[in-house]
Structures are given as C-alpha cells and as structure tokens.
Amino acid sequence: MTNLHASQHPLVAHKLTRLRDRNTDPKKFRELVREIAALLAYEATADLQITPKKIETPLASLVGTELKEKIGLVPILRAGLGMVEGIWELMPTAEVWHIGLYRDERTLKPVEYYNKLPIEPTVSVCLILDPMLATGGSAVATVDVLKRWGVKKIKFVGLIGAPEGISALQIAHPDVPIYLAAIDERLNEHGYILPGLGDAGDRQFGTG
Ligand code: PRP
Ligand code: URA
Fold first, then answer.
1. Which atom of ligand 2 lies nearest, measured to the CA of 202?
2. Active site residue 130
3. What is the pTM of this model?
4. pLDDT tens digits, residue range 43-80?
5. pLDDT single digits (tens) 93-145
6. Ligand 1 center to 58 CA (angstroms)
7. Residue among 17, 107, 122, 207 flagged as catalytic
8. 144 belongs to the catalytic site
9. Residue 107 a catalytic site member
C-alpha cells in the first residue's frame, strides 16, 4: 500500500545498524533514537500545509511561508519518549501529548494507563511516536484514541515495523501513513520483532 514509507536515507540506515547492535549502550542508544526520529520526522512532514507570510528582510519585503497546521507529538510511553526531543528541536512549538500503554506480556494486547487529553482537540495533525510496530496493537489503540479526540490528520512514525504490525495498522486505519526506518522479517513467539533491536524501552532506560 502507498501509505507505507520505509526510509531509504543512508544516514538512517547507518544509525539504525548502530542502534540494533547489542553492544550499543543506553547513552548511545538514546542519542541514536533521538537522531533517527528527527530524520524520519523530516520525511514524515514533507506534506505539511503552509500559508504565505509577509516579512521584511534587512533589504526588502518578501512573501515567505509559515506552517499552517498545529502539530501534536504523541509519544507512546515509555519507549516513544526518546523520539520526542529530536523532533521537538525541528518543531519547537509542537504540543506533546503522552499516551501511556503497555503490552500485556501474555496476551500481547495493549493496556492503557495514561491519557490526559482535554475534551476538545488542540492540534490538527498528530505524529504518533513509538520505536516498535510489532503486533500493531499499541499503534491501533493510539490512533483510536486520537480519532475519538477529533484529530483529522494522523501519522505513525516508528523505527522498526514487523509485517504483522504494519498490516494490522493498515487494515484498522488505512488513512494513517506509516513512516519507518526499516521493515523487518517477522515477530518471534513472544511478539518481539526479528531481527529487531530487542526491547526499545529497556534499552533506552537501562532497565533490561
Ligand atoms: C513496546 C513498544 C510499543 C509496543 C509495540 O512497548 O514501545 O509500544 O511494545 O508492540 P505492539 O505493536 O505489539 O503493540 P512496551 O509494551 O514494551 O512498553 P514500554 O514502552 O513501556 O517498555
Ligand atoms: N516492543 C519492543 O520493545 N521490541 C519489540 O521487538 C517488540 C515490542
């Protein structure tokens, strides 16, 4: 399907290989998550709407552009947190709305534990941030939440996707474009992505 974008950028591929390496320590891991997230967000925001803006340079008048849409970054806790900082540097006025979900280890179904969204939506476009799209349960549940909130334009930005999770998200929400650094082979019997990078939350927070 055309709503799936796997980055072809050599910088992304290089950094992702270092990220996957089991010898990469949490400090370096966090740095790489931050950098790759920013590169992916650059690709994912190429179609943001703009509006004309008149300014004065020191020498002349100019009609330039400014962003029209209000952007929300929606990290899925915990692992999505590490993707916020790099993207926020590119779009410092973005709002950050956290969604807390964890996967039940037995059923692999997402369990929601944090959601402080106000009643009315405050942004027009949301980037959901989560490094791993495994079964897709967490991503589908988060899109459900954002659609109920009233957000019209939603994109998923992740580092690695499994075919199973990509299909689940595409079937549940075909209108949500998916931006990834890589598409891996499959899930193992515990719902982990192969070859993957292990547990993205534990590797960032040193809790593995
Ligand atoms: C991981 C990951 C995603 C989810 C992906 O979170 O960060 O949120 O699993 O799996 P899914 O596609 O099968 O839903 P986890 O539940 O390990 O929580 P954590 O981020 O707090 O470590
Ligand atoms: N969550 C992770 O952190 N890693 C996986 O491979 C799958 C889900």
1. 3
2. no
3. 0.97
4. 999 999 999 999 999 999 999 999 999 999 999 999 99
5. 999 999 999 999 999 999 999 999 999 999 999 999 999 999 999 999 999 99
6. 50
7. 107
8. no
9. yes
